[in-house]
Amino acid sequence: MRHPELRGGAGEPARVDHRDQVAEVAQLHGVRAGIHTSSVSLRLKMHFVNVQATRMLTAVDTEIHAQTTAPARTHPAGVALMVASGLASQSGAAIGSFAFDAIGPVGVVAVRQWVAGVVLLAVGRPRLRAFTRQQWWPVLGLAAMFAVMNVSLYSAIDRIGLGLAVTLEFLGPLAVALLGSRQRATVACALLAAAGIVVLTRPQPSSDAVGIGLALLAALCWAGYILLNRTVGRRVPGVAGSAAAGAVSGLVYVPVGIAVLVAHPPTPAALACAGAAGVLASVVPFLADLLALRRVPAHLFGIFMSGSPVYAATIGAVVLGEALGPLDWLGIVLVVTANTVAVTLGRRARAHSTTITAIAAADCAGTNRRKW
Q: pTM, whole model, 2 decimals?
């Protein structure tokens, strides 16, 4: 007996079409597969976020570790090296000025750049042929800043004296420190430095505007040197970038120096003074700073650098017989104080930024882990 439900029209057996059932089953599996795929995709995305947050935490932890493992105590040798660096730099400039009458500031700077270029090449040993275009451009810019900064500074020293020229030049790193800090106290530092400039220069008809302008040009070049040096440090490992810049700068001064020395034949004493300027003002500070940074915290190094105008004024008075009055010393103290405060503020701002980044990264990673 055949069941009625299996009968079709006219009493014949009905043919069941399974294609609709198969389509429904396939659609159901497709929906399930889509849901599963979306879930997997979302999990992969969240895993990627967790990985990125972990990397951020690692980077921040490395930075904090570097800051905390830096020399916590000031090593006496580090302090001695910093003092030696400052005194050598300003003593070299003072000794080099003895050759101004014979070969002029340009001739002295040329010899100085030659000495510095040779020593930097020997110490840094840059692989110049391996440099890429992205590495060469900041290196060339650094070399240009190096060259213009020194010739403008030495020309300013010839006109307005060592103490005033170096103090005005120091406005370059001060400006970089102030622009890099977004705290309200930086306004006070800028006003303090401006007051120091007014006290130092005391604008009047008899002021040497050209000498002051040359010192300010040196300050501008020093600011550019600092900013470019950061780029070079990111793109070129070690001191190879600075060494290459010093070598290029020395190479640029070869035709300039030859022309000056031919036009003004130097005496042995003049060449000796120019060579001493190269050693004391370039080589000794470079090596002393490298060794000092291994023994003292970076912020303390910056504070010690702020005392360079005091070194310059003292050496100018003792070696060159430059007379500085009470107002001159007041102006120098104002500029030095402004730079010291700016360095301290910059250090606190970097520490605060590191802490905020660490908290944000930890919160991001923790939230994602709680979700999954």
A: 0.71
- Please give, one letter per residue, the 3-state secondary structure of the chain: CCCHHHECHHHCECCCCCHHHHHHHHHHHHHHHHHHHHHHHHHHHHHHHHHHHHHHHHHHHHHHHHHHHCCCCCCHHHHHHHHHHHHHHHHHHHHHHCCHHHHHHHHHHHHHHHHHHHHHHHHHCCCHHHCCHHHHHHHHHHHHHHHHHHHHHHHHHHHHCHHHHHHHHCHHHHHHHHHHCCCCHHHHHHHHHHHHHHHHHCCCCCCCHHHHHHHHHHHHHHHHHHHHHHHHHHHCCCCHHHHHHHHHHHHHHHHHHHHHHHHCCCCHHHHHHHHHHHHHHHHHHHHHHHHHCCCCCHHHHHHHHCCHHHHHHHHHHHHCCCCCCHHHHHHHHHHHHHHHHHHHHHHHHHHHHHHHHHHHHHHHHHHHHHHC
Closest CA to 142 of 232, 35, 58, 79: 232
pLDDT digits 0-9 by tens, 49-65: 444 444 443 444 444 34
For 252-275, the DSSP string reads HHHHHHHHHHHHSPPPHHHHHHHH
| Average pLDDT taken over every residue of the chain | 76
* The pair of three-digit structure tokens given for residue 201, joined into one six-digit string: 């220069």
Q: Which residues pair with 337 in a beta bridge?
A: none
Q: With beta carbons less than 8 A apart as the criterion, state whether 106 and 260 touch.
A: yes
Which of 4-8, 29-33, 100-104 comes out lowest in average pLDDT? 4-8
In this structure, are residues 228 and 138 in contact, taking their beta carbons and an 8 Å threshold? Answer: yes
Residue range 61-100, pLDDT digits in tens: 444 344 444 455 557 888 888 888 889 999 999 999 999 9
pLDDT per residue as tens digits for the range 319-349? 998 888 888 899 899 988 888 887 777 665 5
